[in-house]
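User: I'm curious whether this sequence folds into something compact or stays loose and floppy. Could you predict its structure so I can see for myself?
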Amino acid sequence: MPITPYTGPFGRPELQHLLRRSLFGCTVADRAHFEGMGLDEVVDELLSFTNDSTPPLRAYTDANGDPDGIDQAVPFGSTWVNTPITPVNDTDVIEVRLRSWAAWWMGNMIGQQRNLREKLTLFWHNHMPTQTAIVYQSEMQYRLNQLLRTECKGNFRQLIHDVTIEPGMLYFLNGYLNIAAAPDENYARELLELFTLGQGSGYTEDDVQAAARVLTGWTFRFEDENEQPILPESFFYPPNHTTTDKQFSAFFNNTVIQGQTGPNAGEIELNALLDMILANAECSRFICREIYRFFVHGEISEAAENDVIEPLAELFRDNIAAPDQIGIVMRALLTSDHFFSSTIRGCMVKSPVDLVVGDYRLFQFPVPDATLFEARHIVNLEQYWLVAYAGQNLLEPPNVAGWTAYYLYPSYDELWLDTATYPQRNNSLLAVVYGAIETPSDTVLPNNADLEFRVDMIAFVQQLSDPANPNTLIQDLVDLLYVNPISAAVKQQLKQQYLLFGQVSDIYWTEAYELYISDPNTSNMTAQLVPDILLWLIGDMQKAAERHIF
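Assistant: Here's the prediction. I'll summarize afterward.
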């Protein structure tokens, strides 16, 4: 049974709901770009992308600010991703490259194109995470992140295949230690429990052990045969592979994966294992539930299981070999009647990434252009740490299951909020609009020094429909900042307290605003306050609980 498509109105509320869930926030420019399009046309564009991201550049120095004091093999301003670290365990270089990767990833999110690439990359990073505390290796982490970005809407079997033998994952879950003489079950267990089938789906402990034996022999290297550093690469080492047959349980129809020998044994058996796993209908259901919990809602009701998950899982299986399998599933979900139901809108607590990155995008926080790459690195890294302060350190998911808010029954996304995180989240929202990010005076490149970046509230409100009209301005801000409407009394209070200076006539704001816009250097004391008044107003609106849901 196919999922029921949405046939209702597709106006601004529906568009904003779609964009908030598929992008990091919905900006005025995002909304203007898509308004007037039909739902199918919007979703087509959201799913039309490639991985055209440019690599991170070397914009870092040593602890003393000396660009020649660290990572000398990479010229300042060039990318480091193709240059092996020499020696391979140089932790100082690893550290600065990891920070470069973190800043680069944040820059990709804040500067995202109007498509699902960055949101899907984060989804897969949560679904199949690695932790920098364990995989303390910059090239491995960058490569795995790029793999997720490249294949995020593609074929799931290809994605899980490539992740399985990627050096970063082989390192993280001990795949490189999994040998015939001493099988290591770590990756095999997570492959079944977290990546493909789900805990309690029906596989057995013997299945985990058999899968581990299938995967023996895969490893990676940092050095070539002459012990010279190289970029991390995975390979299969036949002497470490278990060549006997692997018997699986009735859950897998008592499948026997024939033991193989020779240089292709690892690839042959890995493909057989993945074919067996994906042939089980529980795999399609599990992946579709994971997608649903990330993009729609944590709790899956019985009705949603029957009317959404099952049809999506069937679509997943019907397109098992399609190169855009995940894109097909996402298209069906984002154009479904269920996705636009009133119970789904405003039902989720924003993750810290959605909260903070969405705000940076909404308020058009300025980012240095590509020519100021040193300043851009500094700004993006500060933004990364603000997201971490709000509760989501992207390089350090809490465990191999990812962040608890995406999977832990029964609270799910409510786990983002507690007595400790709520003040930090509010402070992060205020930091976006009130705070500035400054570059130091001793940057390597002189034109990157002593720069300040902060939100321009005048430029922001000038995008709105009629900022000189206080009623329209308040309503436009409500539409952008909140999912659900607020009362007329609260809107009146905001208008009178901030825009009307405690007066009752709308003309007080209109005259002051228009005077400031016509002459920002005006000597009129009331008009001089206009930028501050906007900042105070929006800062107050930022503190509302409604800012945390979408």
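Summary: The chain has 23 helices and six strands. The beta strands are 218-223, 229-236, 246-247, 256-257, 436-438, 452-454.
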